[in-house]
Amino acid sequence: MASCKFNDDIIIDVLKEIGNIGSGNAVTALASMLSKKVKMSVPKVRIIDFKQVPTILGGEEEIVVGIYLYLNEDVEGNIMFVLDIKSAQNLLEMLLNKKIKEFDEISISALSEVGNIVASSYVNSLSTLTGLKISVSIPSIAIDMAGAILSVPAIQFGFIADQALFIETVFEEGAHSVKGNLFLLPDIYSFKKMLYGLGVL
After folding, report:
1. 85-95 pLDDT tens trace
2. 29 with 52: CB under 8 angstroms?
3. Which of 92, 93, 101, 171 lies 20 to 30 A from 27 at CA?
4. Residue 36, domain member (yes or no)
5. In Å, how far are 28, 61, 93, 115 from 69, measured between CA atoms?
């Protein structure tokens, strides 16, 4: 299948705007969940080749927390929210108000819920801006080497774009800092639908 390249400046600018709006919605939802004031850095939004993802995450052997959701209905593809271990621990300390040394069942459930909230914030922004109906699956979570976590979308990669929308956002609450890495991977047909919906194709 032909690859889909994000090579038009206007398209990239529009996708970056989705990233900015989604980040704002995510921090609002997170602050509501925590009942605390959460600060957010200006999101770093880039278009990257999928093969760059392991490097961004610290290398294929870097242990990370990955929350993975499928996109359904008018847009199909995948969305991943990935945290390094320190960020995951800081996020849990924000949520649970206690020091985290290991990831137990409660921790896993809490991380999964946050991943769902963050991913849904971006998807809802995309849906609003495009007029497309988009739903997300129940999140799957894994704590593993980055290479192993990325193998799930990689297996499907013949059916989706060879580039991804990468959004890095740093959330801060008190002394806690969380760097969230979000990767949006629409399939090639859904990408074209998104561009029509955004009025840039």
Report:
1. 999 998 888 88
2. no
3. 101
4. yes
5. 21, 22, 24, 9
Distance CA 110, CA 152 (A): 22
CA pair distance 132, 142, nearest whole angstrom: 29
Write out the residue range of the structural domain in which residue 30 sits.
Answer: 9-198
Read off the pLDDT band of 1 (50, 70, 90). very low
CATH number at residue 35: 3.40.1550.10
CA dist 70 and 152 (Å) reads: 11
- Other CB atoms closer than 10 Å to residue 19's CB: what's the count? 24
Q: Give the residue ranges of DSSP H helices in the chain.
A: 9-34, 53-56, 85-96, 105-130, 146-155, 188-198
Structural domain total, the chain: 1
Q: Give residue 85's pLDDT.
A: 92
Helix or strand holding residue 69 (H, E): strand 63-73
> What confidence tens digit (pLDDT) does each residue in 102-148 have?
888 888 998 998 888 888 888 888 888 888 899 888 888 989 888 88
What angle in degrees, to the nearest 10, is found between the helix axes of 9-34 and 105-130?
140
Tell me, yes or no, whether 111 lies in a domain.
yes
